[in-house]
Amino acid sequence: MPVYIACQRGTEFVKIGWAKDDPAQRIKNLSVGSPFPIDIVRIIDGDRAVEKWLQDRFRAFRIEGSREWFLWTADMLVVEPPTIEPSKRSKKNAVVLDKVLEEALRNAIEKAGSQTAYARSLGVAHQFISNIWNGTASPSQKVLDNLGLAQKVERRIEKFYGEKQPRQAAE
User: Are 95 and 66 in a shared domain?
Assistant: First the structure.
């Protein structure tokens, strides 16, 4: 799972991000809405913890109002993050994001043309679909219904916890 540093060609804008699989595909998806081509300038072996470390390391260069976009500094090519223990997914996310969901989500994204197009078709933020894909967010009921997986996921959660979880009463 690589962390990448990518630059918008012709600008000083740099994105520090994480890709589940292929960083080139991630950049291709990001490029859909970009007025400038985006090129990968560095790939680092790591997960979200490494991504966060790099983003914290370069926080002085962060573009105001953005979490992952920064102004270029040459140090980005040479800085080495420390060895960080791989981050842990929550139990619920590990259960929910199984192979069936991954395949259904991949098919829906391919059919729509991109994560952004799929998110737009559902009326949700691209980042939300990206977070589901990366396993850092559980899919909403709307996404599960769209993928035809709502009951399957509910059964898997019940199986994991041993029984249906009671809902918290509203206070």
Answer: no
CATH number at residue 130: 1.10.260
Burial readout 54-69 (b: 16 or more C-beta within 10 A, e: otherwise): bbeebeebbeeeeebb
Per the DSSP assignment, residues forming a β-bridge with 17 are: 4
Predicted confidence at residue 91, as pLDDT, reads 44
* Spatial separation of the C-alpha atoms in residues 62 and 145, rounded to whole Å: 37
In a domain, 121, yes or no: yes
For residue 57, the one-letter residue type is R
For residue 38, give every residue at least 6 positions away whose Cβ sits within 8 Å of its Cβ, in sequence order, or none.
6, 7, 8, 9, 15, 27, 30, 31
Same domain for 71 and 99: no
Judged by DSSP in three states, 157 sits in helix
What are the 10-residue block averages of pLDDT along the chain, 171 residues in total?
A: 88 90 85 86 87 89 89 88 58 50 80 85 80 67 70 57 44 38
Number of domains in the chain: 2
Angle between helices 99-112 and 126-134 (to 10 degrees): 150
Burial 70-97 (b: 16+ CB within 10 A, else e): bebeeebeeeebeeeeebeeeeebebbb
